[in-house]
Amino acid sequence: MKAQHTLIFLCGVLLILIGMCIFYPEDGITIGEKTFRFPSLTEAMTKGYQDKESAEEKLKRAEEELRLKIEQDSLNRVYEAELADSIAYTDTLKSYQKLLFETTAKIDYPNNDPSVLYSFFDCLDKCAQGKESIHILHYGDSQIEQDRITAYIREELQNKFGGWGPGLVPAIQPIPSMSVAQSASDSIPRYIADGTLRQKLDGDHYGVLAQMAQMNGRLSLNLSSRNWKKTFPHAKKFSKISLLVGNTDEGFSATLVANGKDSVQTIKKEVLGMTKLTWQLNSPVSSISLKLSGKAELYGVSMDSKSGVFVDNIPLRGSSGTFFTKISSHLLSESMSKMNVKLVLMEFGGNATPYLRDSTSISNFKNSIGRQIAYVKKLNPKANIIFIGPADMNTMVDGKLQSYPKLETIIDSLRSVALANGAMFWNMYDVMGGKNSMQKWVSHSPAWATTDYIHFTEKGASRIAEVFMQSLNNSYDYYQFLKRNDKWSKINSKTENKSKTKTKKHSKKSTSQKAKTK
Length: 518
Prior knowledge:
Blueprint: H1 2-23, E1 29-31, E2 34-36, H2 41-45, H3 55-65, H4 72-80, H5 86-101, E3 107-108, H6 118-128, E4 133-140, H7 150-161, E5 167-169, E6 180-184, E7 190-192, E8 211-225, E9 238-248, E10 252-258, E11 261-267, E12 271-285, E13 287-304, E14 308-315, H8 329-339, E15 341-347, H9 359-379, E16 384-388, E17 394-397, E18 400-403, H10 407-420, E19 424-426, H11 428-432, H12 437-443, H13 458-484, H14 486-517
Parallel strand pairs: 4-14, 4-15, 15-16, 16-19
Antiparallel strand pairs: 1-2, 3-19, 5-13, 6-8, 7-8, 8-13, 9-12, 9-13, 10-11, 10-13, 17-18
């Protein structure tokens, strides 16, 4: 009898649940600020689509796409000869173009024109020859804190094109870095333009790092390269030190202490703009002290070398990337000019995503990002900009952990506005694997992302940076291929133009014949 009662009870519960699946409102029932949802009968009866491809497999597939696939015979002819023959040139050109325009991890170029990066690549070649030193500014949110992603990019570029040192860091850095350890002898006011750590300044003198510290009196700054296992080799030593200061009073002095020796520089007259004080050492060091005296705004300290590539990590926790127009145009322009900035990476969008729920808010954010890109390009027209879109981010949707509903729309908007303003775009979301890929990055062993389903771990950050650098290297290799084969490049260009001319003439002739027929 008890068994019968239990069976009747279970059947009754099942019928109630089926009824709720059928009749429960699709949009749920809202009580106050809470909305209660219930799965439909279809959702309850089916498992739905399950992507069985792992995070490792997705990333390897993206990397495999980035590898140049050409007939080995053609490759041999390209690399063994100063100029490839026409057939080898055409084969290789087609392979490169497929690589640049049809892969998941490709860089999107304005007007599909990869030549926008050629001036930057030319600077890289000069760095490799010891003829130039350039800075790359990597702005981002908490995804790049502690020098994540940036550190890998820096190491790859310095290993290939020369240069040492961790680059530009703020005078006061409250967030630890894997590359630099620093401390100050006193607590001084620090202002930051945006993010959750924002401290608003009465003015716009934030500097190129979007932050500034004010001193009046005496201050000692101690900076040293980390010697951790995870610290990249090229960041562990430097031989050139630059101090970026502004609004200095008469007699402001800075004493560099390195290798037990002191070297003093003094600003004799009051300077309202920015001043860059530089010390070039005879041999590399891993630690320094700067003893400062006077009144000044401190914009940053750069640790690098006489020539090469220097990549600066600029994280703003909680920022959505809409702060550039809050920085003095004169100060930002002057800073980028004196630092010889040739590339700006903007990695934003994640912090705005949870709040962009309709077309109006997405459009407003898109327009704001467009103004930031246009502002930076106007202040430094010779520098390239690559906007890196947000990673996949997961939240609870209808009781399930899923990508944010509007994330793909947001990414499409960011891509559109970046290209429209002359910047390039790199789709980190697609590289990860697209929708719900963050879950696989979290469950990967070792974990590539943290259990907040938003941020990368150090290993995950290095993996995403690795794919980005493969994309950038492919563009560089294509540039070098065209340079090596300049003769065939010009012939190919003329042939294409003749072909286009013939097509136009044929089109006109056909149109004329149609008109006569009528």
